[in-house]
Structure formats: structure tokens, C-alpha cells
């Protein structure tokens, strides 16, 4: 074989080697590609049908196999339950919406790739029920004290309907023979069912004269007012002794007069 023929043979062999990958690609099943292992790893491809099937060699004589794109199972975007809407957090806050069913349910992204969640329009607030009736009871029925003492009364308030909610204003007034003193207290919020039981302390003024007083409790709630009364007997220390001494003097006088 002369030199010219040798060159022709060498060119043909080179051309065949270069054509091997193209020819071998056809060996792979449809949807698969003939790649080296390095190329497949770079692309994230997996073995075609899970089988390591050789399909040729590259120009550097590295073995090539049939690979396919990995099967990606799309993650379905959750659908918001009925009566709920897919919104961003900012949109929900602007509308005053609350998380759907009280849960944070992801439902996608907006055009700016902000996460979106399922929200629902808050239920309208229940209409407040009007107060139909109000009553109060104060105990004990009678208390004896002296100026400067602190007396504690216990009041029990009832109302209808039981689901009524609001505030109650309570005060106690003592009065007798022109002397009157009113004790006012902070409003009491009502968030529970009746009865409301409350202990109310009052401190008798030092200048209150001895007498039998009316202690009147007044409760106001809504457009209703309830009252109840009890007695407060006020005595001054030593006052009874004066009367006793006067009585003894009277008895002594009568005895002496008879003699």
C-alpha cells in the first residue's frame, strides 16, 4: 500500500470514529439520549428505563449510555376550599381577611413570586342583644358599725338575656336625716353569664352622725337600672354609755325623791 492509499484509509477511519456517536444515538429508545456518564450527571439525566445500556463511545473512547430526562412529578397547587380566596399576605391584611378555616394553606405565587395563601372573609360580628331585665340583691340585711369602719357588702346581679354583654356601673349611697354619702366604683365589664357576684367595701365617714341609715345599691347597665336596700346602724363609741349613765341618774333621783 503506497503512501497515498495509507492517508485515505486513515481519513476514512477518522471519519468513522467521528460518526460513531451519531450512529449510536439511534440505538437508544425514543426519548433517550446517548451520553457519557459525566454529561448525564451534569444534566441531571437518569439511565434510560433504569438500564445501563451502552450506545457507543465518544471521540475520547469514553463509553456512552442511554439516558433520559428525569421524570418530574408536578406538585399540584392546593386549591382553596369553597368560600376562600387565594391572596398574598398584604392583600389579605388590606381586606381584613382571616386565614381560611384558621389554617395557613399555601395556594401559589403571584406575578412577583410572593407566596399566596387561602383566606376567607371574616364572619360578621353577632348583633348585640338588648338587655331585657336587670335585678340586684344586697346582703347582709343589717350591719352595725361606727364612723371610720369599713363595711363590706356582697351584691348579686342577674339579667336577661344571659348572653348579654356590656358594662355595669355600681354605686352605694347611705343616707339618714340629711346626711348622705355616695360611693362610686369603676365600671365592670360583663363577658360571662349571670349571676355577677361582687364584694363592695365602703368606709364610713368619720363625721357621720349615729343613726340608722339606708344603704342603697344602684346598678346601671344598658338602658336598665336596678336597686336594692339594706340597713346600716351607725353608733358612736361611748354614746351608749352616756345614755346608760343618764338612766342611772334618773333612777337614783326617783329613789331619793321617794325617801
CATH C-level class of the largest domain = Mainly Beta
CATH level 3 topology of the largest domain = Immunoglobulin-like
In angstroms, what is the radius of gyration?
Answer: 49 Å
SSE order, as H and E?
Answer: HEHEEEEHEEEEEEEEEEEEH
User: Treating each run of at least 4 consecutive H or I residues as one helix, how many helices?
Assistant: 4
Biggest sheet record: 6 strands, mixed
Low-confidence runs (pLDDT<50, min 5 residues)? 21-25
Global mean pLDDT: 83
User: How large is the share of residues in beta strands?
Assistant: 35-45%
Separation of termini?
184 Å
Description:
By secondary structure, the protein is α+β, with helices and mostly antiparallel strands. It folds into three domains: 3-68, no CATH class; 85-120, no CATH class; 133-239, Immunoglobulin-like, CATH 2.60.40.10. Helices cover 22% and strands 41% of the residues. It has helices at residues 3-25, 37-43, 89-95, 239-258; strands at residues 32-36, 46-47, 54-57, 63-68, 85-88, 98-99, 106-109, 115-120, 133-139, 142-145, 150-160, 166-176, 179-184, 188-190, 196-203, 211-221, 224-234. Strands 10, 12, 13, 14, 16 and 17 form a six-stranded mixed sheet that branches. Mean pLDDT is 83; it is low at 21-25.
